[in-house]
UniProtKB/TrEMBL annotation:
Family, per entry: Belongs to the glycosyl hydrolase 30 family.
Record has DNA-binding as a keyword: no
Membrane spanning residue stretches: none
Signal sequence extent: 1-18
UniProt-listed GO biological process terms: glucosylceramide catabolic process
Organism from which the protein derives: Wolfiporia cocos (strain MD-104)
Boundaries of every Glycosyl hydrolase family 30 TIM-barrel domain copy: 69-405
Name of protein: Glycoside hydrolase family 30 protein
One GO MF term: glucosylceramidase activity
Amino acid sequence: MFMHAISACLSLAAPIAAQQIYDVWSTTWDRSDLFTYTNLSPNPIDFTTPGATGSADIVITSSTVYQPIIGFGASLTDSSAKVLSELKSDNSDAYWDILNYLFDPTDGADAAGFSYLRVPLGASDFSDTVYSFDDTSGDTSLSDFNINNAPSYLYSTLQDITGINSLLKIHIVPWSPPGWMTSTGTMLGGSFLDEYTDTYASYLLKCLQAYSSMGFSVYAIGIQNEPQNSDSTYPTCLISAAQEAAIGIQLRSLMDSNGFSDTIIIGYEHNWNDAGAYPVTLMEDAPNAFAGVSFHCYEGSVSDQQTFYNAYPNKNIYFTECTGEFGSDWWSDIKWYMDNIFIGSPQYWGQSGAMWNLALNGLGEPKLPGTDSCGTPCRPIVTVNSNGTYNYNQEFYAIAQASKAILPKDSGGPFGQRIESTVNGDLNWGLIVAAYVTERTDNNPWNRYSLVVLNWDDQPNGSWDPTPITATIEFQGAQATYTFPVGVTTLWWYAEAES
Ligand SMILES: *[C@@H]1O[C@H](CO)[C@@H](O)[C@H](O)[C@H]1NC(C)=O
Ligand SMILES: *[C@@H]1O[C@H](CO)[C@@H](O)[C@H](O)[C@H]1NC(C)=O
């Protein structure tokens, strides 16, 4: 009764007066702010009766609600788990500091709350050795299947992460089927042999069952990482759309009859540029097996996600891999990541955004001996040195600024959903914006509305001159004004849903 009285009261009060921005996270081009939190109390930014619009005017349409976001994050490769578990032995305080800062999703925590994690099934180019979970040639009954062919530090690290973030969406996907199911007889390149369609589907079900028996709740499984890539120096395999469809149909049926009807299958898992071909064919061939498809950044552009969306608007879109390389410019990378992935992917219907290795050393190692991938060493989210020191790279800040905006407000509450936003005004090119609503539990009518804003106005007249942009924010008939520094800003306020 008491709660009802309160909400009745709130809905009678003029909501405009109550909407205020207190919470701001900032990462600036000069690194003076690095995912730095400011509470504006006692001087919050008020939403008031609208006045003139700013030279950039952010218009939020909160009644236009788009896709839910499942989380932002990275991949836990064998190598990432190895450097992290070595750190755990050498300097366990640092290890727990890193894991908490990366993964704690609790509202109010000083942490990024990564909630999406991709985990390779078997070896990738970031493993010590080439292995699958059944390397016995011709073992079509899979009697030698053994999930413990992966190093134990992979599972212990994953256990520690899920202990911090129980909301983690785990996406498991192989870099190759067992070698004997491919044309080369090895996991190092080649193409999938049709005769093993059912065997491979059973193999993937066994992976799910093994994860489940270790206590991991798996959000999604994929058939093949980068199915259009064959490389003889690391685990890769060509699997055509028709083959992947056939495997997916069989796997879906096995999952449904073995207690995994809530786990989804994500297809494709490759570059943007082929968005109108392979993933569309996959949906045509297996419309009920796949919940959606995932994209990588290495060819094409994020707007290609629109091509797939236009063909299959009811299928999910995920963005699951891109890597930084050592030696690139910190601020240029932040701009690219926000524009193309951590704001860009949601703008083009993505429900996730993720980078590649969670952790590596300062040389981009360890890597699979002999692999030609990451010729320019790949930069992880967090560099972990063998002497126990570590540092967060630009990838971390890009992910963190996006992740913070969509985490559940309430324990047990939903993640954020994208809402409509546009930028008007002379300086509309200067701001790239994603807007989200995060609904509440317990019938709390005060949703959280958050913005992730890139101000990339760093050379307004052709020469270097980072220029803050004072923007107006239009929301439910009210207006706030905020000056965005050059960098990335995440901020939020609370308001009732538009009725
Ligand atoms: C730790 O190792 C890194 C990378 O080799 C190095 O840059 C750093 O100076 C070392 N720090 C200490 C305290 O030894
Ligand atoms: C850029 O040039 C225009 C036109 O000369 C001027 O009005 C504006 O103040 C300049 N902007 C900056 C940030 O210097």
